[in-house]
């Protein structure tokens, strides 16, 4: 088992889709020697975790130990980098890497697979849960990806259920990234406290402000897909579903934010 001080730290950026995941990922990647990779399809992610688990079973009692755990973490992240949905990118120097991980909205639905991938190499990982006001989040997803209200409620409910299960597992150091909180903040201080500090990054205010400026618009919906807002019918369908709103209220209480 690796010591917690050993680098790189592992960070996952999950939570709601269209809630700032790309910008938060890009902000970390602008810090030297940090590498948060793009997304992988859920089915592929599950198969990837099963594959790594089979390798662990094969090596158990043979080449396990700190040396194997260190190489294993590197192999998992390198393989993820090569198969993730991202533009071609060069590898990183593992000896210099401060923070490594992946961006995968709704990754909490597959939290068991995440633990299979990183559990043997770390005692814990930092899990950033991105979230956003329900109406604005649905509106963005409906415009960008043609989400319907039933589909949206199903996906967000599954996300919250996954998070609820994760809260009982000390392996996940869960941290919220509330998009409206970021938008309404002074920017640099918020990013330092909510994003950089939990993973041990230290940037000056000027550097952080520059990074925010360089990544602004990362999640912008193309103009041709932007909607003027949620309809009255959509609001009613979102707000009147008792089971759904109870899950959202739990999330509000857990992170001390307002979403409805």
The helix/strand series, from N terminus to C terminus, equals EHEHHEHEHHEHHHHH
Low-pLDDT ranges: 1-5
Walk across the major sheet and give the strand order.
Answer: 2-3-1-4-5
Structural class: alpha/beta
**Would you count the extended β strands for me?**
5
Could you tell me the CATH topology label.
Rossmann fold
Ends apart, CA distance between termini? 42 Å
User: Quick one: CATH class?
Assistant: Alpha Beta
Percent range for β-strand residues: 5-15%
Shape: globular
| Radius of gyration over C-alpha positions, nearest whole angstrom | 19 Å
What is the mean pLDDT?
91
Instruction: Tell me the number of structural domains.
Output: 1
CATH-level-2 architecture: 3-Layer(aba) Sandwich
Helix content class? 40-55%
Q: How does the major sheet shape up? A: 5 strands, parallel
SS summary, helix count: 11
Question: What can you tell me about this protein's structure?
Answer:
This protein is of the alpha/beta class. It has a single domain, classed as Rossmann fold. Helix content is 50%, strand content 12%. The protein has helices spanning 21-29, 42-59, 66-83, 111-118, 134-145, 149-166, 179-183, 188-196, 205-215, 232-239, 242-255; strands spanning 9-15, 34-37, 99-103, 125-131, 172-178. It has a five-stranded parallel β-sheet, with helices on both faces. Helix 1 (21-29) crosses helix 9, helix 2 packs parallel to helix 4 (111-118) and helix 6 (149-166) packs across helix 11. The radius of gyration is 19 Å and the shape is globular. The termini are far apart.
């Amino acid at each position: 088992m690796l010591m917690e001080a050993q680098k790189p730290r592992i960070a996952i950026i999950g939570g709601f889709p269209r809630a700032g995941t790309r910008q938060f990922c890009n902000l970390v990647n602008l810090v030297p020697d940090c590498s948060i990779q793009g997304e992988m399809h859920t089915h592929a992610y599950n198969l990837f975790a099963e594959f790594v688990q089979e390798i662990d079973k094969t090596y158990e009692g043979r080449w396990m130990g700190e040396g194997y755990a260190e190489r294993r973490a590197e192999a998992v992240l390198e393989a993820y980098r090569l198969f993730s949905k991202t533009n071609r990118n060069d590898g990183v120097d593992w000896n210099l890497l401060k923070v490594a991980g992946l961006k995968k909205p709704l990754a909490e639905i597959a939290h068991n697979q995440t633990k299979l991938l990183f559990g043997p190499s770390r005692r814990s990982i930092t899990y950033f849960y991105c979230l956003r006001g329900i109406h604005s989040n649905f509106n963005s997803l409906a415009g960008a990806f043609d989400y319907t209200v039933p589909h949206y409620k199903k996906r967000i409910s599954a996300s919250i259920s996954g998070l609820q299960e994760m809260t009982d597992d000390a392996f996940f150091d869960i941290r919220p990234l509330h998009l409206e909180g970021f938008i309404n903040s002074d920017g640099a201080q918020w990013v330092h406290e909510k994003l950089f500090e939990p993973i041990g990054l230290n940037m000056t205010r000027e550097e952080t402000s520059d990074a925010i400026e360089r990544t602004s618009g990362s999640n912008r919906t193309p103009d041709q897909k932007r909607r003027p807002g949620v309809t009255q019918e959509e609001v009613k369908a979102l707000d009147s579903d008792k089971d759904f709103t109870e899950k959202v209220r739990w999330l509000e209480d857990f992170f001390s934010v307002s979403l409805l």
